[in-house]
Design a protein that fits this description.
Blueprint: E1 7-11, E2 18-22, H1 23-39, E3 47-51, H2 56-68, E4 71-74, H3 81-90, E5 95-99, E6 102-104, E7 107-109, H4 111-124, E8 131-135, H5 161-172, H6 174-177, E9 179-182, H7 183-189, E10 204-210, E11 218-223, H8 224-238, E12 246-249, H9 256-268, E13 272-276, H10 287-295, E14 299-302, H11 304-311, H12 316-319, E15 328-331, H13 338-348, E16 354-357, E17 392-395, E18 401-402, E19 406-412, E20 422-423, H14 427-435, E21 442-450, E22 456-461, E23 465-468, E24 471-474, H15 475-483, E25 488-498, E26 502-511, H16 519-532, E27 541-544, H17 558-565, H18 581-588
Parallel strand pairs: 1-13, 3-4, 3-5, 4-10, 5-8, 8-9, 12-13, 12-14, 14-15, 15-16, 26-27
Antiparallel strand pairs: 1-2, 6-7, 10-11, 11-20, 17-18, 17-19, 19-21, 21-22, 23-24, 25-26
Helix pairs in contact: 1-2, 3-4, 8-9, 11-13
The structure holds 5'-O-[(S)-butoxy(hydroxy)phosphoryl]adenosine.
C-alpha cells in the first residue's frame, strides 16, 4: 500500500491557505471543545445552533456536540438572520457557535453581524441563548498562527478594520445580548481529554432544517446508531472507499450532503478528505481541478449546478490540470441532465471514471438510489438502482404499485437505518408529511420513471417545492416573504427552467391598490426575500399579476402559472379556472424583470 494519511486537507478561500489536521489533532480539538461546551452547561439532549463557514472549527463544534450527546443544529451560513432566528427558536437552542466573518470568493460575509441580528430577534420574541461563542476566522491574523493545529496560517487577504471593530464592539454589548465569548480563549484553557457521553442507538444525533411545503422549515431528526451506520456504509460502497483514497465532497456542511459525506461518512471510515472553504470560480474557474491535483483526489462528489456552471467555460480550465488521480465522480442534489453528465464523464473524468448519480434527501440520511462504481452499467441521467436494503416502488395517484415500465410517485416500501425519526417537536407533522398520502409507504415527493431495463429516472418534485441549485425551497416560504411587503396583496411562485441553477424562481405578484409595478419595487422585493430567507431564494423573475388563475375553491393553479412563465400556450385543461380572462391578461403582462 502507498503512504496514506488520516486527515483533513483544509483548503481555505485563498489557494495559499492550507493546513492539515490529523485525526489525533482533531480528537484533541473535539475534546477541548466538548469541555468548553460542558462548562457552558451543555448536557445530553440540549440543542446547540452552529452558524459557520466551511472551516475546521465547524467540524470540531459538531463533533463536540456529538461527544456530549447534545444535538447540533447547523444553519447554512448563506441563510439570513431571520432564518437563523426561526431555527434557534424552533428547537430552543441553548447556545450559538458562529464566526466573525469570512470571504466567499471575493465577497465578504459579515457573519457575526447576522448572528447578532438573529439573537436580537430571538430576544424580541422572549428567547435568549445562554451564550454565543465566536471563532475568530477573518481576524485570525491578529492571533498569529498559534499552536492549535486547526488554526490556519494568517489569512493573506487583508482583514478590513471594520470587521475587527465590529466584533469587538459587540463584545462590549455582551451584557444585554447574552454573552459573546471568543472560541480561541475558551479552547486555550480547556483540557485535552473528555469522556464521551454514552448514548443509545436511537438517541438523536442532530437536527437539520429542510424546507417544508407549508413554508415553515422542518427540523429533521437523525439518530446516533441508524444514521451513522447508514452514512458509513453508503460512503464505503458508493464511493468504493479504500484506505489510500483522498475523498472530496464539495458540499457545505450546512446541508445534509456535508453532514453525511464531509463529516460523518468519511470519518467513520477513517478516510482522508478535503475540507474546502471556497467556491469553484475563485480565483479562477479551474479551482476545483487544481485542488484535485494538489491533493491527488481519487473520489470527487459535487452537484449538477456546479458542473453546469463550469461547463460554460469550456474544457480548457479542466484539461489544464492532470486529474490523473480521479477514479469516481459523484453527483447529487437534483436531476443531472444528460449533457452535463456526459461532460462530467468525458471531460472531467476523461472517460475513465465511474459516475455515481446519487438520489437521496435530507430525510433519508444517505444514498437511496445510486450506481455502485465499476459494477453498475451507467445511463446518463439515471440514478440507476436502489442501494442495499432499499425497496423503492412507483405508485399511481390511487396508490397502486406499478410494475415494469412506469411513471408516478417515488416511494419506499420499507425503512432503512438512516431514515429520519421525527420532525423536531412535531411528530404529527412527520407522519402527515411522509406517510399520510399513501399509508404504509414513505413518500419522497419526487416523480420517477422506471424504464424497460428497470433503471430509475427522477423526474423532479411533484409537490409545491422548488429545487434551486440543488437546494429545496417551498413556494409557500417565498410567497409569504413577498406578501409581507406592504405593496403586495397576493403572490404565487413557480419554478422556471434555468441553464445553471436547474430551476429558478418566477414570482407573480398582485399589488395592493395605490401601488405601481416598477423596477424599484422588484428590487425591494428581491431584497426582502434575501433578508427573510437568504440569497439562494432571490427570484430571477417577478411579474405583475393583476389577477391569478384560481379554482372555484380559491386554490392557485401553479400548473397554469408555470406554463405562462414559459410562454407556453398549451395549457391543457383550464375548465376549472374560475376566471379564464386572467390567463390572457397574464400572457400579455409577461414583461419580465431579469436579475
Ligand atoms: C431532493 C432532496 C440529498 C442531498 C441534497 C439535497 C433532489 C437529490 C438527486 C438526484 C435527482 C435529486 C430530489 C430530492 N435530488 N439528489 N441524484 N437526482 N434529484 O437534499 O435538500 O433534502 O433535497 O433533491 O428532488 O427529493 P434535499
Amino acid at each position: 500500500m502507498t503512504d496514506f494519511f488520516l486527515m483533513y486537507f483544509r483548503e481555505g478561500n485563498e489557494p495559499e491557505e492550507t493546513t492539515q489536521i490529523t485525526y489525533r489533532e482533531l480528537l484533541v480539538q473535539v475534546c477541548r471543545c466538548s469541555n468548553v461546551l460542558q462548562k457552558q452547561g451543555i448536557q445530553k439532549g440540549d440543542r446547540v445552533a452552529i452558524y459557520m463557514p466551511m472551516i475546521p472549527e465547524l467540524v470540531v463544534a459538531m463533533l463536540a456536540c456529538a461527544r456530549l450527546g447534545a444535538l447540533h443544529s447547523i444553519v447554512f451560513a448563506g441563510f439570513s438572520a431571520e432564518s437563523l432566528c426561526e431555527r434557534i427558536l424552533d428547537s430552543s437552542c441553548s447556545l450559538l457557535i458562529t464566526t466573525d466573518a469570512f470571504y466567499r470568493g471575493e465577497k465578504l460575509v459579515n457573519l457575526k453581524e447576522l448572528a447578532d441580528e438573529a439573537l436580537d430577534k430571538c430576544r424580541e420574541k422572549g428567547f435568549q441563548v445562554r451564550c454565543c461563542i465566536v471563532v475568530k476566522h477573518l481576524g485570525r491574523a491578529e492571533l498569529g498562527t498559534g499552536d492549535s493545529p486547526s488554526q490556519s496560517p494568517p489569512i493573506k487577504r487583508p482583514c478590513p478594520d471594520v470587521q475587527v471593530s465590529l466584533v469587538l464592539k459587540n463584545k462590549c454589548h455582551c451584557t444585554d445580548r447574552g454573552v459573546d465569548l471568543w472560541w480561541h480563549e475558551l479552547m486555550q484553557e480547556a483540557e485535552d481529554e473528555c469522556e464521551p457521553e454514552w448514548c443509545d442507538a436511537e438517541d438523536p444525533l442532530f437536527i437539520l432544517y429542510t424546507s417544508g411545503s407549508t413554508g415553515k422549515p422542518k427540523g429533521v431528526v437523525h439518530t446516533v446508531g441508524g444514521y451513522m451506520l447508514y452514512v458509513a456504509t453508503t460512503f464505503k460502497y458508493v464511493f468504493d472507499f479504500h484506505a489510500e483514497d483522498v475523498f472530496w465532497c464539495t458540499a457545505d456542511i450546512g446541508w445534509i450532503t456535508g453532514h453525511s459525506y464531509v463529516t460523518y461518512g468519511p470519518l467513520a471510515n477513517g478516510a482522508t478528505s478535503v475540507l474546502f472553504e471556497g467556491i469553484p470560480t475563485y480565483p479562477d474557474v479551474s479551482r476545483l481541478w487544481s485542488i484535485v491535483d494538489k491533493y491527488k483526489v481519487t473520489k470527487f462528489y459535487t452537484a449538477p449546478t456546479a458542473i453546469r456552471l463550469l461547463m460554460k467555460f469550456g474544457d480548457e480550465p479542466v484539461t489544464r490540470h492532470s486529474r490523473a488521480s480521479l477514479q469516481v465522480l459523484g453527483t447529487v442534489g437534483e436531476p443531472i441532465n444528460p449533457e452535463a453528465w456526459l461532460w462530467y464523464h468525458q471531460v472531467v473524468g476523461a472517460q475513465r471514471c465511474s459516475i455515481v448519480d446519487t438520489f437521496w434527501q435530507t430525510e433519508t440520511g444517505g444514498h437511496m438510489l445510486t450506481p455502485l462504481p465499476g459494477a453498475t452499467p451507467m445511463k446518463p441521467g439515471s440514478a440507476t438502482f436502489p442501494f442495499f436494503g432499499v425497496a423503492p416502488a412507483i405508485l399511481n395517484e390511487s396508490g397502486e404499485e406499478l410494475e415494469g415500465e412506469a411513471e408516478g410517485y417515488l416511494v419506499f416500501k420499507q425503512p432503512w437505518p438512516g431514515i429520519m425519526r421525527t420532525v423536531y417537536g412535531n411528530h404529527e407533522r412527520f407522519e402527515a408529511t411522509y406517510f399520510k398520502k399513501f399509508p404504509g409507504y414513505y413518500v419522497t415527493g419526487d416523480g420517477c420513471r422506471r424504464d424497460q431495463d428497470g433503471y430509475y429516472w427522477i423526474t423532479g418534485r411533484i409537490d409545491d417545492m422548488l429545487n434551486v441549485s440543488g437546494h429545496l425551497l417551498s413556494t409557500a416560504e417565498v410567497e409569504s416573504a413577498l406578501v409581507e411587503h406592504e405593496a403586495i396583496a397576493e403572490a404565487a411562485v413557480v419554478g422556471h427552467p434555468h441553464p445553471v441553477k436547474g430551476e429558478c424562481l418566477y414570482c407573480f405578484v398582485t399589488l395592493c391598490d395605490g401601488y405601481t409595478f416598477s423596477p424599484t419595487l422588484t428590487e425591494e422585493l428581491k431584497k426582502q426575500i434575501r433578508e427573510k430567507i437568504g440569497p439562494i431564494a432571490t427570484p430571477d423573475y417577478i411579474q405583475n399579476a393583476p389577477g391569478l388563475p384560481k379554482t372555484r375553491s380559491g386554490k392557485i393553479m401553479r400548473r397554469v402559472l408555470r406554463k405562462i412563465a414559459q410562454n407556453d400556450h398549451d395549457l391543457g385543461d383550464t375548465s376549472t379556472v374560475a376566471d379564464p380572462t386572467v390567463i390572457c391578461q397574464l400572457f400579455n403582462h409577461r414583461c419580465l424583470t431579469i436579475q
